[in-house]
Amino acid sequence: MGNKLKNLGLITLGLVAGVAASLQFSAMAQKNVAPLPIEELRQLADVFGLIKSDYVEPVDDSKLISEAISGMVSSLDPHSVYLDKKAFKELQESTQGKFVGLGIEVGMEDGYVKIISPIEDSPADKAGVKAGDLITKLDSLPVKGMSLDEAVKHMRGEPNTKITITIARKNVDKPIVLTITRDLIKTQSVKGKIIEPGYAWLRVSQFQEPSLDDLVKKINALYAQDPHIKGLVLDLRNNPGGLVPSAIGISAIFLPKDVTVVTTNGQIPESKANYTASREYYSTRSGPDPLAKLPEGIKSVPMVVLVNTGSASASEIVSGALQDYHRATILGTQTFGKGSVQTIRQISADTGVKITTARYYTPSGRSIQAKGITPDLNVEETAENDGINSLRLREADLQKHLNNDTDAKAGTEKRDEAEDEKRAIELEKTLKPLEYGSATDFQLMQALNHLKGLPVQLAKPADKADSKEDGKDDTNGDKKSEVPSAPSAPAAQDLKSNKPKK
Prior knowledge:
Layout: H1 2-7, E1 9-11, E2 21-27, H2 38-54, H3 61-74, E3 81-83, H4 85-94, E4 98-101, E5 104-109, E6 112-118, H5 123-127, E7 134-138, E8 141-142, H6 148-155, E9 162-168, E10 176-181, E11 183-186, E12 190-196, E13 199-204, H7 211-225, E14 231-235, H8 244-254, E15 260-266, E16 273-276, H9 279-282, E17 303-307, H10 314-324, E18 329-332, E19 340-346, E20 352-361, E21 377-378, H11 388-391, H12 417-430, H13 442-452, H14 461-469, H15 490-496
Parallel strand pairs: 2-19, 13-14, 14-17, 17-18, 18-21
Antiparallel strand pairs: 1-2, 3-20, 4-11, 5-6, 6-7, 7-8, 7-9, 9-10, 12-13, 15-16, 15-20, 19-20
Helix pairs in contact: 7-8, 8-10
GO molecular function: endopeptidase activity; serine-type peptidase activity
Keywords: Hydrolase, Protease, Serine protease, Signal
């Protein structure tokens, strides 16, 4: 089982490939595949030869092959990508929660690099880069015509070196030019404090290698400060994902031992798996279980989990599991909907491909892909019920996104993206920067109200109706925090037949 944990990871790619992606590292294995399409391969060889003989200037063989592989893989979906030597090394380093760059999560749209989200407190975030921005130039180089991999190479670099990016922002007439200094992006993924006597707030901004140990330490410190905690808020807003073992371990802190946390299903046998709240899935280190010395009350303390549109991937694993077991009330807005697993196949000593190999499912069998987690209590970011999160970019808005195999309607909703972006920009101008964990944090205050049994200010009626259509309780009523009996094995068994249980 230790090998399964070793092979399973979920990581925020930052500049490498966009929104957080589930990763499995393994060497390219010989598999039984259908016969190769000889005629099509002959055409590829003919084009290769034509470029070599007729192109205006000589082109290196390795460059042509690399670009052919890159184009083939990136045509599949927004999260599949070819990793050359540099990108492969950076990907491995980023699992440790640090990398040198600008601190943005990106994708490609209409030939430009689209900002999905700036990483909290990164150079890009401090420079004013916003989700939805399109990068049109990197220094003096036009982005149009570059692959995502090429653009990433230009944005990466050594610490303390500068890059000038030109941004096109909707409803801003002139290009925005920003000079940003590259830096080591090293985030402190866990924060926490006693908000008021009896109530604690814990924030996980990314799921990194140290996150589980850091969260355990923080929980113990908070209980030492206040042994009578009667309500806990776990804040996963704008958490784009991270390592899956970390997500499983953090789920295991609050769930009964050995219950299912997440299942995966794909075409190959190794993609069909059931990951439980067991040590073998969140830690392979020798020595005591990292969860062994947690306060006894952590398994039953009433909980609220805060999510929003920026909560993706591993955040959706945790919030989906805690929701399925009724262990916590999910409060906030619809999550991003990143429910696919990417496997890293090493194709040489220092290169690989990141390819989508599976979807993941909550313990009850829900696929989150292109849909996300629907909160139990739909609460907007501000008291004005501005609806800003419904206007922001989600998985379903990405070109060539994978469909949801348990909900045919998920990700098919049409919206006027131009109008939504226009409205989002106008709203962003009126919003003050969110100070997580502060007295001005509206969603946090509503979470506290819920824990105290006080009224919660829900989103406007239109959003409320949408949530009820999904079968969620949008009242400030009887959502319980105790852990019920865990779902039985059939959900995982159904995955084997590609029919997840709802």
